[in-house]
Amino acid sequence: MTVPTSGRPAGGRATVAALLCVLALLPVPGYAAPNDPGPQDGTSIEDIRAELDGLYREAEQATEAYNAADVKAGRQEKRLTSLRGDLARTEDRVNDLHDLAGAAARTQYRGGDLAATGLQLLLGDHPDQALNEASQARQAMRNLVNVADAQQTARAELSRRTDAAAKELRKLESSRADKAEAKKKIEGKITEAEGIEAGLEAAQTRALARLEKQDAKKAEASWTGSGTTSGAGGGNSADNGSGGGGTPAVGAAASAVDFAMAQIGKPYVWGATGPSSYDCSGLTSAAWAAAGHPIPRTSQAQWQGLTRVTLASAQPGDLIIYYSDATHVGMYIGGGQMVHAPRPGRTVTTAPVASMPVLGVVRPGV
């Protein structure tokens, strides 16, 4: 039998060893490297950036849908107001014709029957009076026929205008429903993105900012370095970063650029067209309106309705359209840079043209 020399029971060492084994098996909190902070669930900063970009992209797509529905509703409201005015005037015309028909009928009644007038002409003592009465009766009958035809035409016009107004009202209600649906989607996506950003730690926020700066530098280098910038649908390119960079803005284009640059620092607000806040197409449309050349409100309408030029020939004042669905737009200011309203939570700023997939370039004022 062995007697422990330490005076401590032999089982004590076994107990300590067992505890050490248990502690070794317990999970140890992970700490991210200072240069690569990430959530404790293992999501990388790149993944967070991609998720945020995706949410804000969806919000921007919904914003352009909202803007398009808003423009359509505005046109429909004007059309409906005009139709209602026409309808009121046509109703007044129908009422006037109704009164005229009554007056003509009374005139015919006073003139008497034409056959009786003929007998008066033959047998009466006053043939001149009989002829006068006969003439009045004929005129009264012609008036009745004319009034009846006019009434029929006016009532048909009234029916047509009533149907047109009802149709325009249905279109307006549909556009308003589209606006409401888009608004709900916008607010949902922005709320979701803001929730993610609010849950980030300070180190993660700093890492996101560094990542954005790195991407901006890469985008700028892709314009001024390799000499080409691939488009996401337009297939355009700029040679050696010139892209009109050496061409100063003149005339209306200079006014548009000056206006857009003066808005730097103002917040992005979806659906806004100034003067205190803007969304992307709200900024470009307001800038060109200030330059005396109004352009379509939405980036998609700007892409569809304005003159297209190559990216290589871009000049200050031209609009750079982004993404295959034309849902973002910025204004070229030269040197491979553009000014734009980026997204919710950001302000109007400048950025490299190549910072997003380019669809193409359009030139207002031509």
Largest sheet properties: 6 strands, antiparallel
Please write the string of helix (H) and strand (E) elements. HHHHHHHHEEEEEE
Count of alpha and pi helical runs: 8
Judged by helices, strands and strand pairing, the structural class is alpha+beta
Number of strands: 6
Unreliable stretches, pLDDT < 50, 5 or more residues? 1-40, 114-123, 225-245
Q: Rg, please? A: 39 Å
Tell me the overall shape.
elongated
Q: pLDDT average, as an integer?
A: 77
The largest beta-sheet arranges its strands as 1-6-2-3-4-5
Q: How far from one another are the termini?
A: 107 Å
Strand fraction: 5-15%
The helicity comes to 55-70%
Protein described:
The chain has 366 residues and is an alpha+beta fold. It contains eight helices and six strands, in the order ααααααααββββββ. The protein has helices at 10-25, 45-111, 114-123, 127-198, 202-224, 251-262, 280-290, 299-305; strands at 307-309, 319-322, 328-334, 337-340, 349-352, 358-363. The protein has a six-stranded antiparallel sheet with strand order 1-6-2-3-4-5. Strand 4 (337-340) and strand 5 (349-352) form a beta hairpin. Helix 2 (45-111) packs antiparallel against helix 4 (127-198). The radius of gyration is 39 Å and the shape is elongated.
List the helices and strands and how they pair.
Elements: H1 10-25, H2 45-111, H3 114-123, H4 127-198, H5 202-224, H6 251-262, H7 280-290, H8 299-305, E1 307-309, E2 319-322, E3 328-334, E4 337-340, E5 349-352, E6 358-363
Antiparallel strand pairs: 1-6, 2-3, 2-6, 3-4, 4-5
Helix pairs in contact: 2-4, 2-5, 3-4, 6-7
